[in-house]
Design a protein that fits this description.
The chain has one domain: Nucleoside Triphosphate Pyrophosphohydrolase (Alpha-Beta Complex), CATH 3.90.79. Helix content is 18%, strand content 34%. It has three helices and nine strands.
Length: 175
């Protein structure tokens, strides 16, 4: 019997540097969304926190933030700061694993972009450049949402585009 409580937990980070956003292109060998543009991130593993000292007698705090810092360092060689929550989403991967994605945004702190083997290109782009790239579905709108937060100082809910020609599926959702 399938355990309804088991999910992958993934964090992604939209990195901001001088009003530009770092985007990266996934390797053509990746299982999910090969060759599409995305932002750095990765899966949470139990070892990401159980090897660290607890912050209280029972808990580890800032687990997702520490995961994002590690994943960004590993994938693009950068240090980040000022991590903020953007949104969460869920999807079922092609291998039938339910996945919860927590999208965060942060400021560039230091370093020069050095791509891991999972990535083949990168670019620092403005929100006006986004239509030039083929993104993992929904990600363009996430970057637009971050840009809106920076301009307005407040956050709206994510709004995707619903396409009935695709039998009621989200055309611009993450999956």
């Amino acid at each position: 019997m399938e355990d309804e409580k088991l999910h992958y937990i993934v964090v992604t980070g939209i990195i901001i540097k001088k009003r530009k956003y770092l985007i990266t292109r996934r390797s053509l060998e990746e299982t999910a969304f090969p060759g599409l543009w995305t932002v750095p991130g990765g899966k949470l593993r139990k070892s990401d926190y159980v090897r660290a000292p607890k912050d209280t007698g029972d808990h580890w705090y800032n687990v997702l933030e520490k995961l994002l810092e590690r994943e960004i360092q590993e994938e693009v060689g950068l240090k980040i700061k000022n991590i903020h929550y953007l949104l969460s989403l869920a999807y079922i991967r092609s291998d039938n694993i339910p996945t919860m994605i927590i999208s965060l945004y942060c400021d560039y702190d230091s370093g020069k972009v050095m791509l891991s083997d999972e990535l083949i290109e990168h670019a620092w782009v403005t929100v006006n450049d986004l239509n030039k790239y083929k993104f993992v579905p929904g990600l363009r709108e996430e970057i637009e949402l971050v840009d809106s937060v920076l301009k307005k100082g407040k956050q709206d809910m994510w709004k995707g585009k619903y396409d009935t020609a695709l039998n009621g599926s989200l055309r611009d959702g993450h999956g």
